[in-house]
Structure formats: C-alpha cells, structure tokens
Design a protein that fits this description.
By secondary structure, the chain is an alpha+beta fold. It has 3 helices and 3 strands, in the order H-E-E-E-H-H. The longest helix is centred in the last third of the chain and has 22 residues. It is globular.
Length: about 100
Amino acid sequence: MRDSIEQLIIESGFLLEAPFSWVTISIRYGLKNDEVPHYGKINKRYGDLPLSIEVDTHELIDVTLEELTKKFKITVLKALIHAGKKYDRPTEMLEAELQK
C-alpha cells in the first residue's frame, strides 16, 4: 500500500513547488475516525510535513488483513487530500483513488 500511495504522490505532482519536500503520516489508534488530520509544523531540517490522523480501534477488531489495509489506505488518502487542499496541491489523482 505504501508504495502505491508514494507513487500517486509523485505522479500527481503533489510535491512540485510545495512548501514541503515530503509528507509523513502517523495513524493513531483511538476512539474516533478523524476526518481532518492534525498538522505539525513543516520540519525545517528535513522538509517534511507531519500529519497524524486517528482511526477508531473498535472498527479494527476482527477485521481481515485486506480490510485493515483498505481502512488505512482510505485514512491516508483522506489526510493527503485535506493537506493538498490546504496547501493548494493537485489532489485529483488522490481523489480518484479514494473513489475506487
């Protein structure tokens, strides 16, 4: 999953002329599903934009590996799309992937 998301980020032009050189995403286990990620400051040394987003652990109980992978992919795409809109980045390819 990670490789396919990274490929989408690169192919979509998400990073071209962005105020960050990469995005790091932490998925937090909690009691709710965040629709909006939490933003950290762009790291001046490494240039990455840190995002974190919470998933409801109750929805992860007894799921298959395929279902878990799908849940995480949807969560990561939502975080990236939100960040893309905030920083005026192209999100069309990410949104198309989310619709699949």
